[in-house]
Amino acid sequence: MADIASVSRTDLTQRRKRLRRQRRVKIIQTIWQTMAVSGLAGTLLWGAIQPIWVLKTDKSIEISGNKLLTDEAVRSRIGLSYPQSMWKIQPSQIASSLQKQPAIAHANVTRRLLPPGLIVEVEERIPVAILQRSQLVNPQARSENREEASGKTVEKTLGFIDAKGILIPIESYGSANISSLKTKAKLPNLKVIGSPEQYREYWKQVYQTLSHSSLKITEIDWRDPSNLILKTELGKVHLGTPNSQLPEKIKVLMQMRQLPTEVNPNRMEYIDLKNPDTPMIQVLDSTNALKKQRFNP
């Protein structure tokens, strides 16, 4: 019995020593882990505040997805001052700011760590028509010489419009003009003349209806809000005020494709579809007097 008690006390003593040794090892490991984490955090903090993590110029901003917009035009709308700390830049705020620009439908901005910079991906609005407005070449000539001033108008390009009716001013593309933009991407052939305020309310309905037509339409004249005028392959078409009858009017116009074979295009002034139930044609008779005649598609 004495031997058993002696062995038990020896085992207990050794077990206590092992436990104390394990606790010391764990304490040392914890200290080293804490020092390592603190050192890593300090290194990262030190590295983060170094001058290398700074955007020195806008050339550090990489632009992609743009076709009509130049890289410079996109960079100028980011609104950063330089040099700028990478960690003070808010990519989501920059993306939101870019999406407020008329020419940009969507933007995504991310940081690039090596080399320090920003990656900006943009999705441009797609122009479906060129916006123009008539203006006098010399407005003062009106009071000096009425005859000379009459007809002295030019179509000034204001910009573009997309399928949703959003106006994209030409200034949105920086210093670019129509000629230079044509070298970058295919521009729409459709022209719209008039003030955007006059047709913005009806644009989506009108464009959707016309875009579904196989008839070639090159111009929409909206200078008179009460009379929408189209320039088509059949000639000029007067549609009157845009309303729910517009699809029906375009359908009647499609049925008039044989018109050039029945009426001399040189004698026809325009097609009157203000009332789609009674399509009319304004023509010049043998005495060059204007007269209207009904046309049955």
TrEMBL record:
TM annotation in the entry: 25-49
Q: Which residues form a coiled coil?
A: none
Localisation per UniProt entry: Membrane
What is this protein's name?
Answer: Cell division protein FtsQ
Organism of origin is Brunnivagina elsteri CCALA 953
Question: What keywords appear on the UniProt entry?
Answer: Cell cycle, Cell division, Cell membrane, Membrane, Transmembrane, Transmembrane helix
Q: Which GO terms describe its cellular component?
A: plasma membrane
Membrane in keyword set: yes
Q: Where do the POTRA domain residues begin and end?
A: 56-125
Set out the biological process GO terms recorded for this chain's protein.
Answer: cell division
